[in-house]
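User: For my dataset I need records formatted as: sequence, then structure tokens, nothing else. Please produce one.
Assistant:
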Amino acid sequence: MPRVLGAVPYLNARPLLAAIPPEFEVREAPPAELAERFVRGEFEAALLPIIDAFRTPGARIVPGVAIAAWGEVLSVRLFLDRPLAQAQTIARDPASHTSNALFEILAGLKWNRALPPPLRGERPDGRLLIGDAALRALGTVAEEIDLASEWVAWTGLPFVFAAWVTMAPLPGLAQALQASAKAGMARRDQIADAEAPRLGLRRELCRHYLSAAIRYDFGPDERRGAELFWRHAAVLQIAPPAGALKFLE
């Protein structure tokens, strides 16, 4: 039987999956669905939205590997039909957990704005998009706000969107995921060139995205950023009481 991993079907995950050993089978799903399936026990490990690591008792993070940003991430973004100061409603991305929570934190604690989702049938003043859909939407509206940029400017810390998370790791899991990430880092340009036509994106954008916008480390600064996110999420009651992240030994 293969060892099953869960991952998101987005460009930003491709470097982390570049050299997964053949004894693993990777199954892809949007982040919100991935979290539900992880809790049901379908995966030995999943590239989970970081907020779901907070919400899952007993979850352990594989050290050293994340999908994170130290500034403009490009793929987690508000697309606004009017300036933010005039906006009244924002449509959330149903595929997201972490990015929706980040939006709630920025709206409530940084911008001091109530920006609920639109009522059924109502046209929103803007929408939150994540992943490849956000990359394809770049430049399509008058005002765009990058949520990772807003977080970093506000906190001075990076933002962690996702990490490999496990409940009961089997031998060799962390080493396999770390080795695959290392191999993928060395092949980011080739991955970008291969994925760009499939996604309908410019090769230069994909290269910049994988090499500069997305960061793949999970070091001390990323840990501080993630734990601060947890504390803010707990204040807004969209995560359990904050604590320290748990990592595999």
